[in-house]
Request: fold
Amino acid sequence: MPIKSYIAYPVDGKRNELIMKIKALDSCELNLAINEEIFIVVTDTFSEDEDKMIYETIVNMPELKHLTLVSGFSDEEISN
Amino acid sequence: MKRLKIISFVVFLMIAAVIIIGRSIKATYEKTSIDENDKSLNSEHDSILLHVNILDVNNIIDKNARFKNTAKYFSNRAYEGAPPTVPHEVEGTQIGGKACLKCHETGGYVDKFKANAPIVPHPNFENCIQCHVPVNTKNEFKDSNWELVTNKSSSEITNQALLTSPPVIPHTITKTDDCLSCHSGLGIKKVRVTHPERTNCRQCHVPKYTQKDEQDEFIRKPLVNN
Amino acid sequence: MFTQNLNRRVFVKKMATSAAVVSAVSLFPGIVFAEEQQVNLTEDNLNWKKAPCRFCGVGCGLLIGISNGKAVAVKGDPRSSVNKGLACVKGYHSVMALYGKDRLKKPLVKKNGVFVETSMKEALDLVASKMSETIKNHGKDAVSIYGSGQWAIPDGYIASKLFKGCIGTNNIEANARLCMASAVTGFMTSFGMDEPMGCYEDIDYANVFVLWGNNMAEMHPVLFSRMLDQRQKRGIKIIDFATRTTRTSNAADKSILFKPQTDLAVANAICYEIIKNNWVNKNFVETNCKFQKGKTNIGHGLTDDFKFKDEPEQIDFDAFKVFLEDYIPEKVEKYSGVAARDIKYMAALYGDPNKKVVSFWCMGPNQHTRGTWMNNLIYNIHLLTGKISSPGNSPFSLTGQPSACGTAREVGTFTHKLPKGLVANEKDRAFAAKIWGVPVENIPDKPTHHTMSMFRALDRGEIKFMWIQVTNPMVTIPNLNRYRKGAEKEGRFIVVSDVYPTPTTDVADVILPSAMWIEKTGLFGNSERRTQFWEQMLTPPGEAMDDGKQLLEVAERLGYGKYFQYSKENYAEEVYNEYTQFHAGKKHGMAPLEVLKKEAGMIWPFVDGKPTKWRFNSKYDPACEKEGFHFYGNEDGKAVIWQRPYEAPAESPDSEYPFWLNTGRVVEHWHTGSMTRRISVLHKAVPNSYVELNPEEAKELGIKNRDRVRITSRRGTIVMLASVNERGVPPRGQVFVPFFDEHFLINELTLDSYCPISNEPDYKKCAVKIEKV
Reply:
């Protein structure tokens, strides 16, 4: 059940659409900057597979310019 | 019949006398009593009723100017319910009063700042600088470990008992609050009320909080001891 | 198990988020996140507890929101009759002062000029051994303690008992000497008993408020708002009588400016007018007042060997009238700068039998080389007109510290005082010794040093050891250069108990980290004789320990443990119960703890379960022994109307130093700013001190707002930013500087002259010159 955090850079003018789309995903939490375009995405998934899937989904969104992984915690790290 | 008339007349006189005496006693009591504290500052009544000006809020705002969201709400507050700092320039020689109320009494679009001025929830207080101070530097004197702690439910409307029941008030209420100051068109977008014309908010919406240490939980003794 | 795991996930998620926030901040400096630092909490664990505000002497009731062992929010306590649910910007943000990153958590000991961390046990051992060593080598009067009106009642009480009752020295003083001493001597000389006769409720009944040199809009904002509220409802009048134009002046109905020190003359002129127009309440004066005069040309306490003792002499009303002939408004107008018609206007307000008048004052008349006289003169006006001790008629001396009344004045943490009475009185010493359980010969019968004298003795080397608690004298002592050098001299040992590093901890040999405010259980007493209790809500950080406990630990080490048999957990309450024995009775009885725990404070005298709101008036005060008024502080039951002349201050502007320097505060910062500057909101509002100049004079000197200006007095020099036409506007010939900023130590310039009766220094008047840098 991994937890990962990313910084998302939206395509100019597409920020709101991107936010709406990611918000619609079950296992994502957003943390929005109020004075910059970028925002933080935290994914909390049940399995490594789901984690990969969700990453693919976000990365392939046309409104997304760039997604940077910042930190990740694996199952063991969480339960310890 | 005549007797009845006399009796009813006497009763009427008595009632009138009681009312008149009662009123004058009350009036003198109000003037001279020394035990009766002034209730005007003492209650939270401001948050039940509001000043009428807010009602035409939708006519005075500029819909293109920026609106407040919860993030903005916290951007100039130390905690939920803290007096906000003043995000624009202020002149220092006055205590506030009319200079502030010019824009903030009614709220609405102010060309000078290209923004919607929020409505002050307590226009009866003149000494604005007592609680609201400007921001004159970005730097800190020394760093702090202070954390902004908020109640998550106050930014999410998930506090209804039934699907159709009025939501409870998830945040604490201070004496300076006026519901529509935040919940109207000039307030926070997310918590805008659908029915600003109904001014007696606390008829339907009750606070979720109680003073914890005020009293013990009420437990009724069972009627039958098993 | 499940919830534990869930909490862990929440925690990890938060960690992941903060990691992302950190890297985002490095990419976009200044970025702000919506949910940044927002910790979710369920409403069940937000707990509101009552406490009096930590800052000024108004003593607002606050409710502190506690969540997971941290203070997270504040609101005004609607049950408190002081503030009725409102606070000021300092109060609302007060809890943030607990969380500065540089909070002192470990004791520090200076070794070869560098501070080294140590344990509390070792630090206290060192303090105790230094103390006993000093006493052995140099005598009892070589050790001293300097506390403050921010001491909670138990702290001050323990300090007094330890130093006076056990060690046997009267070397105990508090910074309240610098702010309240003239108010005390004013009360003592006029009424024979300290503290105001009225209470804040007077605001609800008065028709006229006269503010004597008191910028209430900034310094006592909550009370000022209560006045404004009354003005909206009842149309009361506010008269601001001051030396400079402030926010208060602008909000008042009338602003009257006077030249520094001439308030003495104006007050006498008001008395002259009252008598001339037959506004004297003859019945009241005949039954309740007597007339006295004291010495004149009493000096300014500038030399180390200065000594003064007043010799009161009875006079009669006629002699008083003759004396007032010198204060005809037209004559006073010439040197006070107050138009005769304004003097007559004020006199008419006081004289009007249909108007109830409250006079408010604080540091203006108190920090005054004739502070005691100035206090006497305001009482004169109220006594002549009989406007005293009844709802709405009140000469009201305000305080600046949360427990200046409760601790410094009522516990008596001054060299000449005991919790009840004076060290010089054998009866009072015997009474104290009995309650303290110490041999009566322990308590010395002669006062030693008042505050200025104490710092002078430290400089000269007569005092070798000084323990400073909850105050910051290396910012606040006038003519600071001399006294800082004195404290740093070889052979002095300075212990400082505080919560943050300050200029005072800089000169310390040992720094003890203190627990602050709601991190301990305590009591404060505010300006209206209201005692307020709060319980410990938070754990102090690191090894921080409350001041009272530090004193108890040292007392134990000095071998006085048997006199301090309190339990460790509950000592504050036990000390309070012991202390209230001193004041038992109708004249000063304090409310018991169980009442204080329930109520938002209680006014003393607390008699038969009821507070006495107006003293000396048989209608409200059960201690009165006769009908009507009874000023039972004096043996004959009469209040004194004093003949006090105008006398010049110690230093006035001349051709070399042409400006008056006045110092004071701003609404955002409290005292030396060691707490308020660590509150982000307050620091950002007023990040630094400044010098207010008269706009015309600034123009003549070529100084614009924010220009750098050099201010020089005979004692020091300082460069700071000019403030022209901003918050306050001084009249020509005056400048004003707030004293909170440790980077601009204005007290290096101020003069250490003091009122010879109260020994309180005058921070409001000295001569300086101004240059553009």
Residues 12 and 44 of chain A are 27 Å apart (CA to CA). The longest strand of chain A covers residues 64-73.
